[in-house]
Amino acid sequence: MAMIPPIDYATASQEIRAEHDRELSLRGRMTNMKRILLNSPAAHRIYAEWFTLRDLLKPTLDDRAIWLLSMAISETMRAEVPVTFFRRALMD
Prior knowledge:
The chain is mainly α. The chain is 68% helix and 0% strand. It has five helices and no strands. It has helices at 14-27, 32-37, 41-57, 63-76, 80-91. The longest helix has 17 residues, at 41-57. The mean pLDDT is 93.
């Protein structure tokens, strides 16, 4: 199986480092998945927009409703990884 390595901050481009720093300032942590996504700053920004959507919906919807909406969007887009995440979140 192919493996995409996480970014190395010390040798990363200025664009990748800026996106890395932005993520840390917004959410306070950097997971391995995010370090891998940062190989493409555009892919990371697309992923991170879910958090923006969640924050916009939080005053109106509870977590379960946000997860249901997010799962419906993920199923419509046939995105298996987020569908699995939201399905599991709904079971807990």
